[in-house]
Please model this.
Amino acid sequence: MKTDIIYLDNAATAWPKPDNVYKFMTEFYSRMGVNPGRSGFDKAIEAGNIIENLRKRLTSFFGGDEDTPERLCFGYNATDALNLIINGLLSEGDHVVTTNLEHNSVIRPINHLVRDGGVEATYLPFDSDGFIDPEDVRKAIQPNTRLVIVNHGSNVIGTIQPVAEIGKVCKEMEVTFAIDSSQTAGVVPINMKEMNIDVLAFTGHKALMGSTGIGGLCVRKHVELKQTRSGGTGVRSAYPYHLEEYPWRMEFGTPNMVGIAALWAGQEWIEQQGGEREIHTREMELADKFVSALKEIDEISLYCCNSLDNHLSTVTLNVEGLEAGDVGIMLDVDHNIATRTGLHCAPLVHEQLGILDIHGGVRFSIGAFNTEEHIDSAINALQEISTGSTVKKKVISG
Model:
């Protein structure tokens, strides 16, 4: 699949999408773009069927409780789902354990509850390689700890956290364990039962190869989230309160049918590729080539890339003497390479790395449609930019 740019910002949104996703979205919406579950005519029933079948498919995909697929609930994105999880589990007097690796979709809801809702929070640092120690989680749990929530894969440094080990600790300590799978779902296998994950938030527009505006949560059957919203469901309309049973307990209003269709087609594509492990292996081969070359450039600082074991194909760096934003502009304008610069909505990562005050870093995130030629171009571009930074430093110092 050809594009007019070298796109290396897949941690923000996977792009381009597989052709079958575009095709199925268009065909499905043109044939069945009606409101499911609100009427009894054939198209409404058919639209409802794809939602229910996708619940079953994703529940199995995430290793959830397959006998309760209704607990796979759809929303706008992972941020939406994480708000439902955090606000649905925490109340005044509760304590939550989380990490410095989190996205603002976790940090901000927790901080609002700390400031306004009488909740206590502990943020755990990551080690020099970018990982959370499960024993640090154990030590942080208090008698009033209600939730441990962890970013499965960092959108900044790409490290994949040991969620199975953290889940084991949480199970032993009888604390609910939730993960943000935004960066991992679709590229790293997840089994909620085996990993002792109680609740999972996902987004559709990244490695699941769906569209923007779709995501959700998968809730194990022993976990209850309190309702924090209410509205239309199309079911039992005479009942004066929002329904307590799943999926309506966590779903509100008309669903995103285009997004549902995209997620369905994304699942088809992932299966055609041989599954998440095959996709991840291909991406990491490119990441290894990229990182190995950059380690030879003295002017480039890489973060948490000493080893790419348990890593996503996401790499953040800085070029000595240059602002990250300027490097991003040069990559775009001079080399036709799209990256992401700044703090990546994850300020605590940058603060711990010591690059918050210099406005973050330059993130390269390799995706399923990147090639060796793309990586060669990125390496060559950084070599050229780094050489320019050396010349600039000499001129300034001279």
